[in-house]
Amino acid sequence: xxxxxxxxxxxxxxxxxxxxxxxxxxxxxxxxxxxxxxxxxxxxxxxxxxxxxxxxxxxxxxxxxxxxxxxxxxxxxxxxxxxxxxxxxxxxxxxxxxxxxxxxxxxxxxxxxxxxxxxxxxxxxxxxxxxxxxxxxxxxxxxxxxxxxxxxxxxx
Length: 156
Description:
Blueprint: H1 2-42, H2 57-64, H3 66-77, H4 82-108, E1 120-121, E2 125-126, H5 130-152
Antiparallel strand pairs: 1-2
Helix pairs in contact: 1-2, 1-5, 4-5
C-alpha cells in the first residue's frame, strides 16, 4: 500500500512539473511577443502582427522547478500581505534566474538570455523586470492553487 502511495505522489510531482514548465514557457513566449511589439512601436519599426515570441527549451525545466521550490517557500509566506508576498516571490525568482543563468553559462558556455540593459546583474537578471516578475508571482500563486486542486486527488 505504501508503494502505491509513493507512486501516486511521484506521478503528482511529475504532472505538477509539467504544468509549471508549460505555464512558465507559454507565459514567457507571450511576454516576449508583447515586448517585441512594444519595441517595434516605440522605435517606429515594422510590427510583427504574428506576435512571435520566443523562449529556450531550458526554460521548461527551469520553470518546472517551481513545482518543487514554490510549495516549499510559499507555505512560509502565506501569512504575509499580498503585495509583500509577491515581492518576496519575485525576489526568489531573481535568485533562481541568476543561479540557473550562471550554471547554464558555465556548463554550455553562455547564458541563453544574456541581458545587456543597464539594469542587469552580470547578464543573468534584469532588475527592471521586477514588476513583470511580481505579476508572474501573482499568476503562479493562482495557478498553483489550481494545480493543487487538479492533482490533489492523485495522492488520496
